[in-house]
Amino acid sequence: MDLSIVIATRDRRALLDRTLTSIEAGRGAPECEVVVVDHGSRDGTAELLEEYAARLPLRVVSLEFRGESIAEPKNAGAEAARGDLVVFVDSGVLCSPGFAGAHLAAHRLAPASCVAGAVLGWDSEDETDPFWATVDAARMPERPAPEWPESLADPRAPRFDPDGGAPWLLMWGANLSVPRRDFLAAGGFDTGMSGWGWDDLELAFRLSRSGLRQVYAPDAWALHYPHPRASLASRMETSRRNWLRAYTRHGGAPELELWDRCDFWEYAECLSRVERTWREAARRLAAPPPRPGGAGRRVLFGFAPPDRPEPGDVFVLPPGVVRSPHPGVVTAYGLRTPLADRSADVAVVSPALLAFDWPPSPGWPPLVETMLREAVRVGGRIEVAGPGGGPRLDALVERAAA
């Protein structure tokens, strides 16, 4: 068996029916199995699966419902799968006729990869739109038709850059494939996450760190059928909670710390700009100010650490600024650090932070403001040291301390 399509579902019989119908209609070479994990459904899903078992190479995994985590049933499906490649799709995702073959082809071109298939209609929530009635009445064509609404386009297509700042941020679990061996070796989805958001992104981030390339495959396309969802506010709340878990799990990874500081679609470019700005600033970072006698613990933002830092001094610096391991350095961009609240008596900031006096997205505060608020959180109070600050930095410090 080359490929296993894994679907985790709970009380979504009608949506699951559409997904299985699309898979049945697109069967052919290559052959694949379908693994459905029923996460404690009570809406007749079991009876629906009995009907499809006579027509599809279908295996069902029944899992007791133990909480709103999509990770556990997805992991159970991957463990039960027999294919070398597992493709995760959601209930309500309508797979195109060449879906399985396109995923296999993408992995043949890039063997050690995590592949995101195109998701059309990802943000459509209006089931009464005439387009969906057309889809219900006819089989999908091999390619999206020219007359399909532009609103169905996958917004990732023009933005995806596998060598860009954060390709893992665009690897969405509604249509995602990965070699089963690599998935299991990585530990699967994080079962500590619940609700909407970040379970797929965290997995992709972890896989990218293990060496898997991130690939976007427009030919492996699927339609995302509209269905009721939690409110945007609720989704953002659980997404932020899951992001904080990911950030903490990965030791305060700098690649993750910017997420709630800019617009989602601006993230990759903003991260790249932060990295470029730090590389430029690092060429002229000043030495830290002399430590006053009897001074307590200090955390220093934007200074070059000496060869032998004073005990109690901690330097916040991004990746690459310090070439060798340094016991007094916390690796972070300074927007969010893994340091605890009030873990220092004072935060000393350098005027070098003014290089970040620009908004990450229109309408957002300049990043230097975020850095200074982080300095206040960690140090309680701020001292400015070094030339080049001026009234602008003084005003920003006063605002952060207010």
UniProtKB/TrEMBL annotation:
Domain Galactosyltransferase C-terminal, residue spans: 171-213
Instruction: Provide the leader sequence positions.
Output: none
Q: Read off the Pfam families from this record.
A: Glyco_transf_7C, Glycos_transf_2
The alphabetized UniProt keywords are:
Transferase
In this chain the Glycosyltransferase 2-like domain maps to 4-126
User: Gene3D superfamilies given for it?
Assistant: Spore Coat Polysaccharide Biosynthesis Protein SpsA, Chain A
Protein name according to UniProt: Glycosyltransferase
Task: Tell me the organism.
Answer: Streptosporangium fragile
